[in-house]
């Protein structure tokens, strides 16, 4: 996983509408990158719905949430609509962004991970779960964010 305190690698990825979204466009804002293995799988759906259910907690902390997986923009569009996800999903089909953040697992799939980036583009928090069948409870994430 990328080291806390290091500069966050810039990236530009397509969203569910095919628009290109770059990390640099969030300069001056906190951003939470949420890496996950894939759309419409049981654990990933539970994970992303947990972020959806807690989106007001991120809004209160002025944090933009970006979900990232290797799935296509079309898959993201269907997945986001089906689960009413109120944040942007980005398609990392080349897996280069997951690799740059150290969130690429040994089987070539994105790990379940998050990276909190501060307003200046520095990594404040980084966490990766090596077991793809679980994810860190939201309560733990929010406590870590409040301490950062």
TrEMBL record:
- A cellular component term, taken from the record's GO annotations: cytoplasm
Which UniProt key words apply to this protein? Antioxidant, Disulfide bond, Oxidoreductase, Peroxidase, Redox-active center
What name appears for this protein in its UniProt entry? thioredoxin-dependent peroxiredoxin
Stated EC number for the protein is: 1.11.1.24
Under the subunit heading, UniProt states:
Monomer.
Name the domain of life this protein comes from.
Bacteria
What reaction gets catalysed by this protein?
a hydroperoxide + [thioredoxin]-dithiol = an alcohol + [thioredoxin]-disulfide + H2O
Task: Show the CDD domains listed in the entry.
Answer: PRX_BCP
Please name the top-level EC class of this enzyme. oxidoreductase
Gene Ontology biological process = cell redox homeostasis; cellular response to oxidative stress
The molecular function terms in GO held by this entry are:
thioredoxin peroxidase activity
What family is this protein classified in? Belongs to the peroxiredoxin family. BCP/PrxQ subfamily.
List each copy of the Thioredoxin domain by range: 2-148
* SUPFAM superfamilies linked to this entry: Thioredoxin-like
- Name the Pfam families on file: AhpC-TSA
Does Zinc-finger appear among the keywords? Answer: no
Q: What is the lineage of its organism?
A: Bacteria, Pseudomonadati, Chlorobiota, Chlorobiia, Chlorobiales
The residues annotated as the active site are 44
What the protein does comes down to:
Thiol-specific peroxidase that catalyzes the reduction of hydrogen peroxide and organic hydroperoxides to water and alcohols, respectively. Plays a role in cell protection against oxidative stress by detoxifying peroxides and as sensor of hydrogen peroxide-mediated signaling events.
């Amino acid at each position: 996983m990328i080291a806390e305190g290091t500069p966050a690698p810039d990236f530009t990825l397509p969203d569910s509408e095919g628009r290109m979204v770059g990390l640099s466009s969030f300069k001056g804002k906190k951003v939470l990158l949420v890496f996950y293995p894939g759309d419409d799988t049981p654990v990933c759906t539970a994970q992303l719905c947990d972020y959806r259910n807690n989106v007001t907690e991120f809004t209160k902390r002025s944090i933009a949430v970006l979900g990232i997986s290797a799935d296509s923009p079309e898959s993201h569009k269907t997945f986001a609509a089906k689960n009413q996800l109120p944040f942007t999903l980005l398609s990392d089909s080349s897996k280069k962004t997951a690799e740059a953040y150290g969130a690429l697992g040994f089987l070539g799939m994105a790990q379940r991970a998050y990276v909190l980036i501060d307003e200046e583009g520095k990594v404040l928090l980084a966490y990766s779960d090596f077991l793809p069948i679980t994810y860190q409870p939201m309560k733990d994430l929010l406590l870590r964010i409040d301490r950062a």
